[in-house]
Amino acid sequence: MPLLEDALVNDLKPALLIGNGINRYGGSQDASWEGLLKKLSGQQGLSLTEDEMREMSNTEFFDILDLSRPLEEKVSLQKTFCDLMTDWRPSAHHAKIVAWAKAKCAPIITVNFDENLSRSVDAKFIRSNAGFTDYYPWSSYFSDQAIDTPETVSRFGMLTG
Protein backbone atom coordinates (compact mmCIF):
# COMPACT_ATOMS: atom_id res chain seq x y z
CA MET A 1 0.00 0.00 0.00
CA PRO A 2 1.47 3.41 -0.93
CA LEU A 3 2.21 5.94 1.76
CA LEU A 4 -0.10 8.95 1.98
CA GLU A 5 2.62 11.39 0.92
CA ASP A 6 3.42 9.22 -2.12
CA ALA A 7 -0.23 8.90 -3.18
CA LEU A 8 -0.84 12.65 -3.01
CA VAL A 9 2.15 14.11 -4.82
CA ASN A 10 0.32 16.21 -7.42
CA ASP A 11 -1.14 19.70 -7.08
CA LEU A 12 -4.67 18.62 -6.22
CA LYS A 13 -6.09 19.95 -2.97
CA PRO A 14 -7.19 16.77 -1.24
CA ALA A 15 -9.38 16.48 1.81
CA LEU A 16 -8.93 13.55 4.13
CA LEU A 17 -12.06 11.60 5.08
CA ILE A 18 -11.31 9.77 8.31
CA GLY A 19 -13.48 7.24 10.12
CA ASN A 20 -13.12 5.26 13.34
CA GLY A 21 -10.39 3.10 11.83
CA ILE A 22 -7.89 5.75 12.91
CA ASN A 23 -8.77 5.01 16.53
CA ARG A 24 -8.24 1.28 16.01
CA TYR A 25 -4.89 1.55 14.22
CA GLY A 26 -2.38 -0.90 15.66
CA GLY A 27 -5.10 -3.01 17.29
CA SER A 28 -6.00 -0.39 19.89
CA GLN A 29 -9.34 -0.85 21.62
CA ASP A 30 -8.94 2.26 23.80
CA ALA A 31 -11.25 4.28 21.55
CA SER A 32 -13.54 1.60 20.14
CA TRP A 33 -17.06 2.51 19.06
CA GLU A 34 -18.02 -1.15 19.42
CA GLY A 35 -16.81 -1.15 23.03
CA LEU A 36 -18.65 2.09 23.71
CA LEU A 37 -21.92 0.79 22.25
CA LYS A 38 -21.55 -2.49 24.14
CA LYS A 39 -21.07 -0.56 27.39
CA LEU A 40 -24.18 1.56 26.67
CA SER A 41 -26.25 -1.54 25.89
CA GLY A 42 -25.15 -3.09 29.19
CA GLN A 43 -26.12 0.09 31.06
CA GLN A 44 -29.58 -0.07 29.46
CA GLY A 45 -30.04 -3.78 30.09
CA LEU A 46 -30.16 -4.58 26.37
CA SER A 47 -28.65 -8.00 25.76
CA LEU A 48 -27.39 -8.75 22.25
CA THR A 49 -25.23 -11.66 21.15
CA GLU A 50 -21.89 -11.07 19.43
CA ASP A 51 -23.46 -12.30 16.17
CA GLU A 52 -26.35 -9.82 16.49
CA MET A 53 -23.94 -6.97 17.12
CA ARG A 54 -21.79 -7.94 14.09
CA GLU A 55 -24.87 -8.01 11.83
CA MET A 56 -25.54 -4.29 12.19
CA SER A 57 -23.65 -1.07 11.65
CA ASN A 58 -22.68 1.12 14.58
CA THR A 59 -25.38 3.64 13.64
CA GLU A 60 -28.03 0.90 13.56
CA PHE A 61 -26.82 -0.31 16.95
CA PHE A 62 -27.07 3.26 18.30
CA ASP A 63 -30.63 3.56 16.93
CA ILE A 64 -31.63 0.29 18.62
CA LEU A 65 -30.19 1.58 21.89
CA ASP A 66 -32.11 4.82 21.48
CA LEU A 67 -35.37 3.00 20.72
CA SER A 68 -34.91 0.64 23.67
CA ARG A 69 -34.64 3.47 26.22
CA PRO A 70 -37.54 3.88 28.59
CA LEU A 71 -39.78 6.78 27.55
CA GLU A 72 -39.36 8.45 30.92
CA GLU A 73 -35.59 8.57 30.43
CA LYS A 74 -34.73 12.26 30.15
CA VAL A 75 -30.97 12.04 29.58
CA SER A 76 -30.07 12.21 25.91
CA LEU A 77 -28.38 9.06 24.65
CA GLN A 78 -26.16 11.30 22.52
CA LYS A 79 -24.95 13.10 25.66
CA THR A 80 -24.29 9.82 27.45
CA PHE A 81 -22.43 8.56 24.37
CA CYS A 82 -20.27 11.69 24.24
CA ASP A 83 -19.64 11.63 27.99
CA LEU A 84 -18.14 8.14 27.66
CA MET A 85 -15.65 9.48 25.09
CA THR A 86 -14.23 12.23 27.31
CA ASP A 87 -11.41 9.95 28.49
CA TRP A 88 -10.33 9.01 24.95
CA ARG A 89 -6.89 10.38 24.11
CA PRO A 90 -5.06 10.72 20.80
CA SER A 91 -2.15 8.49 19.83
CA ALA A 92 1.02 9.47 18.00
CA HIS A 93 -0.50 8.54 14.63
CA HIS A 94 -3.35 11.03 15.16
CA ALA A 95 -0.80 13.84 15.51
CA LYS A 96 1.19 12.59 12.50
CA ILE A 97 -1.83 12.57 10.19
CA VAL A 98 -3.05 15.97 11.40
CA ALA A 99 0.44 17.45 11.04
CA TRP A 100 0.56 16.20 7.43
CA ALA A 101 -2.87 17.72 6.70
CA LYS A 102 -1.85 20.98 8.35
CA ALA A 103 1.37 21.19 6.33
CA LYS A 104 -0.58 20.58 3.10
CA CYS A 105 -3.46 22.91 4.11
CA ALA A 106 -5.73 19.90 3.56
CA PRO A 107 -8.99 19.81 5.47
CA ILE A 108 -9.93 16.72 7.45
CA ILE A 109 -13.53 15.57 7.31
CA THR A 110 -14.33 12.97 9.93
CA VAL A 111 -17.44 11.06 10.86
CA ASN A 112 -16.02 10.59 14.36
CA PHE A 113 -17.60 12.37 17.28
CA ASP A 114 -14.51 12.03 19.46
CA GLU A 115 -11.89 14.77 19.59
CA ASN A 116 -8.74 12.67 19.23
CA LEU A 117 -7.71 14.40 16.00
CA SER A 118 -8.27 17.94 17.30
CA ARG A 119 -6.68 17.15 20.68
CA SER A 120 -3.58 15.78 18.98
CA VAL A 121 -2.61 19.31 17.89
CA ASP A 122 -4.60 21.42 20.38
CA ALA A 123 -6.85 22.77 17.61
CA LYS A 124 -9.44 25.37 18.61
CA PHE A 125 -13.18 24.77 18.37
CA ILE A 126 -14.59 27.49 16.11
CA ARG A 127 -18.27 28.20 15.46
CA SER A 128 -19.59 30.76 12.99
CA ASN A 129 -23.13 32.06 12.64
CA ALA A 130 -24.00 30.36 9.34
CA GLY A 131 -24.93 26.69 9.25
CA PHE A 132 -25.53 24.02 6.62
CA THR A 133 -28.94 23.15 8.03
CA ASP A 134 -30.66 23.40 11.40
CA TYR A 135 -29.93 19.74 12.08
CA TYR A 136 -26.31 19.72 10.85
CA PRO A 137 -24.51 22.83 12.13
CA TRP A 138 -21.50 22.39 9.88
CA SER A 139 -20.41 25.88 10.68
CA SER A 140 -18.54 24.35 13.62
CA TYR A 141 -15.05 23.04 13.11
CA PHE A 142 -11.62 22.65 14.67
CA SER A 143 -8.70 24.65 13.31
CA ASP A 144 -5.67 26.66 14.33
CA GLN A 145 -7.46 29.78 13.02
CA ALA A 146 -10.77 30.89 11.49
CA ILE A 147 -11.55 29.72 7.94
CA ASP A 148 -13.22 32.31 5.71
CA THR A 149 -15.17 29.97 3.41
CA PRO A 150 -15.01 26.20 2.93
CA GLU A 151 -14.74 26.63 -0.85
CA THR A 152 -11.51 28.58 -0.64
CA VAL A 153 -9.94 26.91 2.37
CA SER A 154 -6.24 27.70 2.42
CA ARG A 155 -5.84 26.68 6.02
CA PHE A 156 -6.08 23.48 7.93
CA GLY A 157 -9.47 22.63 9.45
CA MET A 158 -11.47 19.64 10.68
CA LEU A 159 -15.20 19.10 10.23
CA THR A 160 -16.43 16.56 12.78
CA GLY A 161 -19.50 14.36 13.12
Description:
The protein has a 5-stranded mixed β-sheet, covered by helices on one side. By secondary structure, the protein is an alpha/beta fold. The model has no long low-confidence stretch (mean pLDDT 75). Helices cover 37% and strands 11% of the residues. Helix 3 packs parallel to helix 5 (58-68). The protein has helices at 4-7, 21-24, 33-43, 50-54, 58-68, 77-84, 92-103, 116-120; strands at residues 16-18, 108-110, 124-127, 140-143, 157-160.
Blueprint of the fold:
Layout: H1 4-7, E1 16-18, H2 21-24, H3 33-43, H4 50-54, H5 58-68, H6 77-84, H7 92-103, E2 108-110, H8 116-120, E3 124-127, E4 140-143, E5 157-160
Parallel strand pairs: 1-2, 2-5
Antiparallel strand pairs: 3-4, 4-5
Main attributes?
161 residues; alpha/beta; 8 helices; 5 strands
Strand content: 5-15%
**Helix proportion:** 25-40%
Q: What general outline do the C-alpha atoms trace?
A: globular
Q: Roughly how many Å apart are the termini?
A: 28 Å
The biggest sheet, with number of strands, parallel, antiparallel or mixed sense and barrel status, is: 5 strands, mixed
Number of helices: 8
How many strand units? 5
- Taking all Cα atoms into account, the compactness measure Rg is 18 Å
Low-pLDDT parts are none
